[in-house]
Amino acid sequence: MDLDKLPLGKKITYPEKYDPSLLVGISREESRNRSGVTLEPNSFYGLDSWTAYELSWLNLEGVPKNAVLYASYESSSKSFIESKSLKLYLNSLNNKKFNSLGDLLELIKHDLEQCVSSEVEIEIRNTPKDFVKESKSIDLVEINSEEGVEEDVPWVSADEASEEISCSVFRSLCPVTGQPDWATIRVTYSGKLINYQKLFSYLLSFRNFQAFHEECVEKIFSDLKKFCAPNELTVSANFLRRGGIELNPVRSTLEAFNKEVLRETKQ
């Protein structure tokens, strides 16, 4: 897909009527080729989990109803949803009347599944989910951000570890607009102990890297598999919301990875 044709970065007239054609799917195959991610299709698992805090529609009497929408689909889907198109699509529901919450759920599920060519899990709640528990942060690890960590410094030590570590100062850039995207990255693994300085320096190297959220997580996951050879690995990212919508991708070596994606305190 030509990125210049996406609604991102363009002045758009917000829809007044329901319009499922506003949804835009981006090919995962093209995305992985563009970002240089080389993962065998059956070598990992994952999902893309969306939270939309500004879902709004009308009941049959024309009275507005508001809620929080959760939508997720597997990383094996043919396509993933472009974020601004999702916002426009959800806004197109603002003036549409529904007989019941079930009818709204059914419609959104159908439209999103058409977009990504895969099953989509949908949940609508009156309040957001809980916050995720804190993990071991590497934000204060001391490095020279300009020089980084020397290439010959090993990624792992001889010690064994099983831990979850996080970095809340991650930044990448939108591949279309160049605007910054902020996230907390969580790395859960078992295997040889990862060098925190090496990992921190690596994550900071994304600061001017242009890629979609999904591409960033898959590249981090792919690189850590190659550099650290862990026994088990799960990488997740909680990106700060834009326009009331946030995306939290997860990639894992485990088929039974934790699929409940909770909020970071910054979200």
What would you note in describing this structure?
This protein is of the alpha+beta class and 267 residues long. It folds into two domains: 123 residues, GTP Cyclohydrolase I, domain 2, CATH 3.30.1130; 117 residues, GTP cyclohydrolase I, C-terminal domain/NADPH-dependent 7-cyano-7-deazaguanine reductase, N-terminal domain (GTP Cyclohydrolase I, domain 2, 2-Layer Sandwich). Helices cover 22% and strands 34% of the residues. The protein contains five helices and eleven strands. Strands 2, 3, 5, 6, 7, 8, 9, 10 and 11 form a nine-stranded mixed sheet that branches. Strands 1-4 form a two-stranded antiparallel ribbon. A hairpin with a 6-residue loop joins strand 8 and strand 9. The longest helix has 16 residues. It is elongated. The two termini are 30 Å apart. It comes from marine metagenome. This is NADPH-dependent 7-cyano-7-deazaguanine reductase N-terminal domain-containing protein. One of its GO terms (molecular function) is preQ1 synthase activity. It holds the Pfam family QueF_N. InterPro entries: GTP-CH-I_C/QueF, NADPH_dep_7-cyano-7-deazaG_red, QueF, QueF_N.
